[in-house]
Amino acid sequence: MDSTFDSAALGAFLRTRRASLQPHDVGLVRGQRRRAPGLRREEVAALCSMSADYFARLERGDGPQPSEQMLAAIARGLRLTADERDHLYLLAGYRTARGQVWAQYVSPGLMRVMDGITDTPAQVMGPLGETLLQTSLAVALLGDQTGYAGLDRSAAFRWFTDPVARERYHPDDHEKNSRINVAQLRSAVVRDGSGSAAADLVSVLRQKSAEFADLWERHEVGLRFSDTKRFLHPDVGRLDLFCQLLLEPDQGQSLLVFTAASGAENHEKLALLKVLGSEKFVAVTE
After folding, report:
1. Looking at the domain assignment, is residue 66 inside a domain?
2. What residue ranges in the chain does DSSP mark as E strands?
3. Is residue 284 situated within a structural domain?
4. Which residues contact 251 (CB under 8 A, 6 or more apart)?
5. What are the percentages of helix, strand and coil residues in the chain, rounded to 5?
6. Same-domain check for residues 83 and 140
7. Are residues 160 and 85 in the same domain?
8. Do 135 and 201 belong to one domain?
């Protein structure tokens, strides 16, 4: 945190960004009686998961210094570009390195895609398997994976350290999934270097998981997850879904979209999952 929090400039910046957004930019329908040049404050507040009163105070320049987590929500809600996100953090008094901030939050391009996905399981993943954003149906399918902290944010870390992480995947796929997780982490270490977050994650996993340590010694590379994934859901049972992967190479992020594989049963179970709605899961953090 830095003492150079410019509340007036922050407020002006937020007002102009809100005015520049149109309802269709964020998946909303423009009503006939709309008078605001852009989005309404309450609409932006909802997109940022905060109260309209809090956002209004920030716009007026008389609100408290927002936390980095709150700034991340604002940047996501306002669909800020990389430069705009950096500017937002500077106005709020933070000097966080651009790479550290940007790698952990959803890119504007993927946010626009997610805006159009309303009735399909989909989620945005970070470079080390961090779940950054989920649709409500993805939460119903896999549980809420966005509330973890520390190393637990990585799906690969949870896979090798928490038996619960494997419960929704078919047991016959566990061994192959383990090998793929290790191979992908090996590629990440080669890509990012020995002093990277990927290398630190591998170091911890080699100590915590005998399975991981054994697989690491195989030096396997180039393994990829199957397009069809077999899930075991506590309410709908086995569910085979096709997984479409969209990459955002500049950010190291990926979008996973799950659709029903061939067969009426899979379509029926996915429809049932939509009816059941999102289940509530509490992430266990250290």
Report:
1. yes
2. 122-125, 131-134, 228-233, 237-248, 253-260
3. no
4. 102, 103, 107, 110
5. 50, 15, 35
6. no
7. no
8. yes
Residue range 138-190, pLDDT digits in tens: 999 999 998 898 999 999 999 999 999 999 999 999 999 999 999 999 988 98
The reply to whether 139 falls in a domain is yes
Note the pLDDT tens digit of each residue in 236-283.
999 999 999 998 876 678 999 999 987 789 999 999 998 887 444 334
Amino acid at 25: D
Q: What is the mean pLDDT of residues 123-133?
A: 91
Domain that holds residue 127: 109-276
Q: What CATH code is carried by the domain that includes residue 61? A: 1.10.260.40
Q: Find where tokens 């937002």 sit.
A: 88
Task: Judge whether 248 and 109 are in contact, CB under 8 Å.
Answer: yes
Token look-up 């809090």 returns 54
Number of domains in the chain: 2
Crossing angle between the packed helical segments 82-91 and 7-20, to the nearest 10 degrees? 150
Contacts 24+ apart (CB under 8 A), 261-270: 261/228, 266/239, 266/240, 266/241, 269/233, 269/236, 269/237, 269/239, 270/121, 270/239, 270/241
Residues 214 and 127 in one domain: yes
**pTM beyond 0.85:** no
CB of 128 closer than 8 Å to CB of 188: yes
pLDDT band for position 98 (cuts 50, 70, 90): very low
